[in-house]
Amino acid sequence: MPGRTLRKRNRSRIIGATAVAVGASLALAACGSTNDTGSGSAGGGGTGKVGVILPLLTSPFWQSYNDYVPKMAKSQGVEALKTVNSNSDPSQQITDINNELNQGVKGLVVAPLDSAAIEAGLDQADRKGVPVVAVDVAPDKGKVAMVVRADNVAYGTKACEYLGRHITSGKVVQIMGDLASVNGRDRSEAFRTCVKTKYPKLKMLEIPAKWESDTAASKLDTLLNANPDIKGIYMQAGGVYLAPTLQTLKSKGMLKAAGQSGHITIVSNDGIPQEFDAIRKGQIDATVSQPADAYAKYGMYYIKAAMEGKTFKPGPTDHDSTIVKLPSGILEDQLPAPLVTKDNVDDPKLWGNTVK
User: Fold this and answer.
1) Residue 159, SS3 per DSSP
2) What is d(CA 244, CA 252) in angstroms, rounded to the nearest whole number?
3) Cross-strand pairs, 268
4) CB distance 90 to 2 below 8 Å
5) How far is the C-alpha of 201 from the C-alpha of 210, rounded, in Å?
6) Who's near 95: CB < 8 A, 6+ residues apart?
7) How many whole angstroms separate alpha carbon 267 and alpha carbon 279?
8) What DSSP character marks residue 43?
9) Are the CB atoms for 24 and 306 separated by under 8 Å?
């Protein structure tokens, strides 16, 4: 998610629960991992510098993740270099990976922009024997030690089920992410399937917005002109879609607080503080909290393990998640991502309530 600057994208994201010691014995017991002794692909025997590559920094979610990275690296005993921002450009991200490899890093933690395009960068790392951990987005192909991600199918399903419980019939719209990203594909298809199978009285409309706030605003404005009777909205990324959605509704006199006549039920994804404030004000109704803190923590945890030559197996972990094998054969640690509503929005354990 080549040679051109692409438009801004976001990815589209409580906490990864209990702390995990970095010691080998706990890691092996918790996740059914096995030692890969003598592995030539281990970056540096568990030591050495680690490069961390971000997809963008225009979203509050990724700004928070960026802030967590040095803290989590220190807590996990990882020597992380200053983060690199690929600025929403998949081709730049490949260049960034190559630049980090040329600096002699022994491990990489990358949040891919494009699930297919990232393969070129992964191949570069593999040729140099440098392990990679992917955060937030799973690659379609290529070698990674682990994907640290929440279940994005569950995101779309949870949003659908919330809207279905609160809207008996009528039109609902999903503002989709970039379908070049597995996150956008998973959320879109899950929401679509859930509406069709569980809530046939809902009429679904779709806005392809590619994680771009301007695109979301203009297309939502056009859609509302033709469909002023919209009853529900699913935003696949609050970090880029929250502000333009609320501004568009307000400009049309359609932003009604929960409980008021004409209120449009809105569910989002990310779990940023701005979404929590909007829930408290009744502007939106719910969001799925993506664990920015746990993404940083377990990205560092797994890259250190990979540099030490450790491997993992599918199954439950000791941090309230499950490692699954994707169709590509890649392992993914699916971290918990709870639904946040007015009932639990003030929970101090939610990462969005810890950001100052």
Assistant:
1) helix
2) 12
3) 287
4) yes
5) 27
6) none
7) 10
8) S
9) no
The closest alpha carbon to 45, from 130, 128, 144, belongs to: 130
Neighbours of 4 (CB within 10 A): 8
pLDDT band at 180 (very low <50, low <70, confident <90, very high): confident
Per-residue pLDDT at 113: 94
Scanning the structure block, which residue is given the tokens 């081709």?
91
d(CA 271, CA 102): 36
Task: For residues 332 and 21, give the distance between their C-alpha atoms in angstroms, rounded to a whole number.
Answer: 19
- Report residue 226 CA to chain centroid gap: 32
Residue 227 corresponds to which amino acid? N
* CA 269 to chain CA centroid, nearest Å: 9
Residue 321 has which token pair?
A: 């998640």
Confidence grade of residue 355 (pLDDT, cut at 50, 70, 90): confident
Q: Which residue has the tokens 């030591």?
A: 47
User: Which residue in this structure is represented by tokens 């379609």?
Assistant: 140
Phi, psi of 162 (to 5 degrees): -65, -50
Residue of 180, 179, 169 whose CA lies nearest to 207 = 179
Calculate the alpha carbon distances from 98 to 5, 83, 92, 101, 124 in Å.
18, 14, 10, 5, 7
Written as one letter, the residue type at 275 is: E
3-state class (DSSP) for residue 276? helix
Token duo for residue 345:
């929005």
